[in-house]
Amino acid sequence: MLPAIDHLVLDVGEDLGAAASSYHALGFDLTARGHHTLGSSNHLAMFATNYLELLSPGGPGGMIRQELGSFPRGLNGLVFATDDADACYRDLQARGVGVREPQSFSRPVTLADRTTHDARFRTTHLNREEAPFGRLYFCQHFTRDLVWRPEWQRHPNGAQEITGLLIGADRPDAVAALLTRMFGDVPSREAAGRLRFIAGRAVIEIVSTATIADRLGDAMPDAAGRLAFMAQVSLKTTSFRQARDIIGARAAVRDGHLLVPASVAGNVAIAFEA
User: Fold this and answer.
1) Spatial CA neighbour of 274 closest among 247, 253, 248, 246
2) One fold for 5-152 and 159-273
3) Full-model pTM
4) Residue-range domain boundaries for the chain
5) Secondary structure class of 238 (helix, strand, coil)
C-alpha cells in the first residue's frame, strides 16, 4: 500500500454548530451539516485531494455514535485513502497490525439542484490500542463525485490542500514503527527525535512532546493527558495575505507560516503556508 491522507477528523463534541461558526470565521467554506447512518454528524472543509472533517457524535433523533465519546476534543482521526477496504483489512492482518473488520455506512448529500443522494463509504479501523494518538483508519469512497465537488472547494482563506500533520509523542519511534508496520516504509530521519513520513501530498512529522511545546508555544493544543496526540495541521493556501486578512489578530506569523492557535481552532493548531 502507498499511504495518502484521505482526511483528518476534528472531534467537536456536541457543539457542531459552534465549531462550524468558528471555522467559517477562519475563512473555511464548509459543506452543509451531514448525518451518518452510524449516528454522527459532520461538516467538511473540502480541498483538492483531501479534507478536514468536523465531527460530532450526535445526530438527528437523538442518535449517538458511542465510539466517539471517549475521545477529547481536538484532532483525533487520521484517515488514509484506500480503493478496497476489505483488501486493506487482509493486508494489515498479514502485516501483524491489529485491525477491526470493515464497516459500511452512508450519509445523504443534497446538491445544488436540490436532489439528494447517498454518499457511501467503507472503512477499516485499527484497534484502538495500536494508535495512542487517536483513531487511525482507511476510507474507501464509492461516490467520490458526491464528496469532492468544485462548489465546496473554494475557501475565502485560500486553503487548497492538507500538506502536513504534526504528531507529538513521548516515544516518536513507537509511532513511526506503527506506520512502518502498516506501509513497509521507514520514515526518513532528519535529526534526532524528528521523523518524517510521506503520505501522498502531505508529510506526517513525528516529534517529541517537548519539541511540540517549544515549536508551538501558546498555540499548542491540550493533550488531555495523552502520551501521543495530533497537534497541528498544515494547509497550503493560494494567498497568504488573504488568509492573514481574514483571520486577523487570532493568528501570528511564525517561521514563515500563519499559525492559528489551538484555542481558536477546536484544540488543533493550523499552519497556513504559501
Assistant:
1) 253
2) yes
3) 0.94
4) 5-152, 159-273
5) coil
Q: Where are the alpha helices (DSSP H) in 113-204?
A: 172-183
Domain range 5-152, CATH architecture: Roll (3.10)
Nearest to 75 by CA among 53, 44, 59: 53
Rounded to whole angstroms, the Cα distance separating 46 from 150 reads: 9
C-alpha separations of 149 from 80, 247, 269 in Å: 20, 25, 26
- What is residue 250's DSSP assignment? G
Question: How long a stretch of residues is the chain?
Answer: 274
Q: Grid cell 449516528 — which residue?
A: 39
Residue 141 has pLDDT above 60, yes or no: yes
Average pLDDT, whole number, for the chain?
A: 92
Q: What is the CATH number of domain 159-273?
A: 3.10.180.10
SS3 36: coil
What is the number of H-type helices and E-type strands within the chain?
A: 5, 16
